[in-house]
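tool_call predict_complex ligand=S-adenosylmethionine
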Amino acid sequence: MSTTSNQPIPNPTGPSPPLVRLVVKPDRGRSLVAAGPIKPGQVVLVDSPLILYPSSLASLPLCCSRCFRVLPSQPFPCPSCHVALFCSPKCLSLSHPHLLCHALPSLVSGNDTWPDDLLFLLSAYSLPSNSLLQLLSLHSNSRYPDEQMPLIHSQLSSFIPPNLVPTHFSPETTSSLLSKKKTNSVLRGGRALGFYLWASMINHDCLPNVCRFGNIDDPTRENNTDLIFRALHEIKEGSEICRSYVVRSDEYRERHSWLIEYYGFRCKCDRCKIESKWFGNEGEYADEEEELVEREVNFPHWDLLMRYTCKCDGTLAPLPPYPDGSVSDIMECNWCGIIRKYEPPDDDPF
Ligand SMILES: C[S@@+](CC[C@H](N)C(=O)[O-])C[C@H]1O[C@@H](n2cnc3c(N)ncnc32)[C@H](O)[C@@H]1O
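tool_result ok
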């Protein structure tokens, strides 16, 4: 059962009309579903970051503070803080979050306990009010430790001059912002963390039907910080769009602990229903032999898993359909970038 939301999905650089709509499901909250039939390889969603900020102080000398590409040998320093560096006059002119800019000289020379959280908070509080509220609307299932909150908020206050105090600045907002990090932040290129409003609405399945592309270092993409979601196979109208929050080749037990720890839910997808019974889990199978028979004979998802798993453990998705609408049989890995023709999996799964 689901409730249709009237909330439109603005997707300026994505498919038009949008291929997804937002619904609310009783067991998992906001969810994206296919607004019509979706073809294998089709771009389902393109999402730009609400914020993107350096994941640590160590990232600052390595990457552009605007686009987060690796810096050239002659970068352009920020004329205000002299700490942030930019890769081009264009990125320099677009600059970086104003509160972060103000705080960076003290932050890099100080000895704060939580510099990474301060980088996030200063970037978030620099957002225009409506974007900050969008960030605050994201789901979270963990609370920042209450005992650390007064200290981190007072450290944060010391970096914000009285004339720049943002509208929603308060210990409650700070606490709420920090609680969003674990469930929603996306690491980009190992050096920046981003929050993406619509991508954050995509729920999990251990047999996902979309995967995420978007190499931040791709020199051919102007919007290099966008995330692009492509369909792995055909998706029927009304079906939920799901990505995998875990490494898909991981065993049930690892997937289960990760999902509980980071996302606070127990996955009940078709794959988990079967694998949870395997030997060593909560299992029905009394011994390893019985389990191996089950894995080889009765695991209906083997072909699906193999077809879309690259040797590097990344996910393979078909290239977007050709202009005439025909589907490509060329697969691209979202992790190592390899492009190869679809090869049927070996017979022997193990
Ligand atoms: C990134 S958010 C996804 C959007 C979220 N449903 C919302 O309402 O904003 C992740 C959260 O969605 C829920 N979720 C995602 N996939 C789920 C699933 N397969 N089963 C149950 N809950 C799920 C969990 O609460 C998880 O912490």
